[in-house]
Amino acid sequence: MDLGIKDKVAFVMGGSQGIGRAVANELAEAGCKIAIVARTQGPIDDAVAMIRAAGGTAIGFSSDLSVLDNIDKAIARVKQELGAPDIAVFNPPTPDHGAFFELTEEDFAYSFHTLVLCFSRLVRQVVPHMREQHWGRIVTIGAACSKQPMRGQLNFAYALANTTRLSAVSLCKTISAEVAPWGITVNTIATGAIDTDMAHRFFSDRARDVGMSEEAFMAAMGNQIPVGRVGKPEEMAALCAFLCSARAGYTTGELILCDGGITNCAI
Question: What angle separates helix 68-81 from helix 118-133, to the nearest 10 degrees?
Fold first, then answer.
């Protein structure tokens, strides 16, 4: 399927591993020129090399995008090396786990900063070019707790994510209405359990908490998901690529679940 985005410049935050890397690969296969910005240079270099080896165009550099001014600098560098981004994928760090009374006000402030204020700054940097050309795509990689707050289980809870991810989605929806007349769409993908290295570390810790092997824990989790398994990064990436495509111009302001159906089964 031709997604109609050949030669578009795609800025992929956190595109060096996990879901972000799968997104970068998918957009590269669709013909986009990829800019990967993450914290650690080694995985960035690996991701860029893979795209180039497949015949794609990619650059990558390290930056801490939880610092607002670094977002400005990163977009300026991408403009200089590839051109202004036509597509922006906001893939922020996952908020720390914890119950409300285990967390401080500073914890909530930092989570709000990384999920809401950093997204706001990225939008302010990329929208002027998108508005000028009357076309643009912005996608946030979010979480299922944006749709329905998750309960604490197995000695962990999601007070930060339940609160600040919902704020981020509300901002996405608000911005989407303002930029829609300029041909710009803004959407959020709410991910469930996805088979990434970071998820494996998390599942391993949770399995140890309840005295199970990671394999048994993953099998039990898969049994709770209607499709019978955890998701693949490539499945998230395929959905993201569609939302970034020319074909998705009539889909905006949406929170789209990619969680194997488990959120809709929660009570």
Answer: 30
Q: Helix or strand or coil: residue 131?
A: helix
State whether residue 244 is helix, strand or coil.
coil
Residue 240 pLDDT grade (very low, low, confident, very high; cuts 50, 70, 90): very high
The Cβ of residue 73 has, within 10 Å, a number of other Cβ atoms equal to 15
| Amino acid of residue 146 | S
Average pLDDT of the chain to the nearest whole number: 90
What letter represents residue 132's amino acid? E
Residue 214 CB burial class (10 angstroms; 0-12, 13-18, ≥19): middle
Structure tokens at 6: 């050949």
Q: Where are the domains of the chain?
A: 9-192+233-257, 196-230
Rounded distance between C-alpha atoms, residue 26 and residue 241, angstroms: 7
Task: Please give the model's pTM, rounded to 2 decimal places.
Answer: 0.91
User: Looking at domain 9-192+233-257, which of 3.40.109.40, 3.40.50.720, 3.30.40.230, 3.30.9.10 is its CATH number?
Assistant: 3.40.50.720
Least confident of 54-63, 106-115, 208-217, 228-237: 208-217
- Which helix (H) or strand (E) segment holds residue 177: the answer is helix 159-179
Distance CA 56, CA 36 (A): 13
* 229/233 Cα distance (integer angstroms): 13
Contact, 10 vs 35, CB < 8 A?
A: yes
> Distance between CA 46 and CA 134 in Å, rounded?
34
Which residue spans within the chain are E strands per DSSP? Answer: 9-13, 33-38, 57-62, 87-90, 136-143, 184-191, 255-258
